[in-house]
Write a structure and sequence with these properties.
Two copies of one chain form a homodimer.
Chain A: H1 5-17, H2 24-28, E1 43-46, E2 49-57, H3 68-85, E3 89-100, H4 105-122, E4 125-134, E5 139-147, E6 162-165, H5 171-177, H6 183-190, H7 198-205, E7 208-214, H8 218-229, E8 232-235, H9 252-257, E9 262-269, H10 274-283, E10 289-295, E11 302-304
Parallel strand pairs in A: 3-4, 8-11
Antiparallel strand pairs in A: 1-2, 2-5, 3-5, 6-9, 6-10, 7-9, 8-10
Helix pairs in contact in A: 3-4, 5-6, 7-10
Chain lengths: ~325, ~325
Amino acid sequence: MPDDPDESFVIDTLLAARPPDAAPVIRSGVAGIPRFAPGDDAAMVGPRTAVTVDTMVEGIHWDGRSTPEDIGWKIVAVNASDINAMGGTPTWAVLAIALPSPLDRPWVKAFSRGLGLALEAFGISLAGGDTTRSVSGRTLSLTLAGEVEKAVGRHRARPGQTIWVSGPLGGAAAGFLDKTPIPSALLALRRPHPPMGLGKMLAACGHVSAMMDLSDGLAKDLPRLCKASQVGASIDPTALPPHPAVLGRADALAMMTSFGEEYGLLFTADAKADKEIISICTAFNCRPSPIGVTDNNTATGARLKGTPWPRPLFSHFGDPS
Amino acid sequence: MPDDPDESFVIDTLLAARPPDAAPVIRSGVAGIPRFAPGDDAAMVGPRTAVTVDTMVEGIHWDGRSTPEDIGWKIVAVNASDINAMGGTPTWAVLAIALPSPLDRPWVKAFSRGLGLALEAFGISLAGGDTTRSVSGRTLSLTLAGEVEKAVGRHRARPGQTIWVSGPLGGAAAGFLDKTPIPSALLALRRPHPPMGLGKMLAACGHVSAMMDLSDGLAKDLPRLCKASQVGASIDPTALPPHPAVLGRADALAMMTSFGEEYGLLFTADAKADKEIISICTAFNCRPSPIGVTDNNTATGARLKGTPWPRPLFSHFGDPS
């Protein structure tokens, strides 16, 4: 449920044109594939297999401040985050890479190093790929599959549940927008490290009803969750956990909600499970924060208490989701 | 085994940087995943699951003579061909699409129509995707999975086997290079229709040792098969089946061998199986041609009898493979 009208148009047009349930594996239904709404972080293509794809375009998704190693790392990390957010564990990936001519071999070497580090860190096998020439600039698409025992999408949040984020917000925003970002903010932007395994444990505990990552920021992502689940949400701005880079700043709220590139988890859970949620997150070195509650107010959707959502600090059509 | 030094560099560098057998599904080995050489049309990611990805870049892989419908059709067809060439049946796909701003909505609509037609024709479910903005030009990557009961790669051809192509050659070359191509040549270029199902039947018959599609043309693709299988090959140029568009022309040999974009199958089979091969192909409305034999002459590799391979008529770094 993207809010960009162009992106909505592309997705709606593609969905309208595709034949219904064409593949035998889907059509047969024997496998009991869970049905998920378009807009989930990953699509279920088998009873236990999820798949996601994210593209990074030079000049849109990164600029000269990211090294080629950073880009190699990040194209894996953003996809791993999507699998994590479905409650899955990444397994294999294929990479499509378009590079301008003449080939910049040192770039390829450095990019491959970063990619290899991330594949190793997240336990992913690079199964194959496609290399091609581009007219200008680099474009990367990584398709990542994951094994999912119990999938959690965005559409089963219920009114009266606690809304959680798994960690601090605003780091990547500071890494991108600050003139001289602190090192941990730069790291959050350039080498994001999703809490891998946490998504699976939260899905398994049985109390988490909806989950997604915050790649587009709370101000965009929470309304999507609310719309998919047909619930409202009331967020306490003072409960949002600031990254050290934005702590105490006047622009902290916007940095925390309206930039994105966050790869922690946003999820809803039964209020009675608060202690269990904290215990699970702590096991993954995450400090979760309850930031609000879901309600029946679908008309107003996701709201910040006492203040409107800050305006987006940055936007590119078709943010990774 | 690409012959472009740039493409080789990218692939070798990526392969060198990836961690060995990182994913549990691969590492465990319990599933008995067949091992295939890099360079096969698709990668096996499970005991019965193959996956491939192909990218199409505007200005590299297509120009103004292809309609948006053609592009939508073709990005599916070229990937379906890879799955077919492994002996598989396509199942699900995810699409990554990067489009320049402002969005050309009629283009998106027409592209989606072509895509939908091909998805339906080949029985593929579009499971998900990613839309993003590009700086300039359109870039499309489709990742396609397939179900493979018996996979056939490129590395098991043996000396003394018959080399086959499943249909006429040179159509796409004429469609692209001729000033006023005949309609069937334009169709071969713009709406390729791989013989879906044929790859699976050839794999199942038990006589086919190596198989691939001819997306880069016989002059590039046959040497890859020979190198992977460590065999030589002797091709009779008079046995190559010409597409009607190149029949009797002086440049027919080059058009048939040195352009590509052919989505028929190239395969090797025991000589004793000739009749069975013809019978299987005929059932798929294909007229197969035995074009030569494999031999022990690995030093000289794949040769045309009595003439050198014509020079490539067109090349872009990183042709779909």
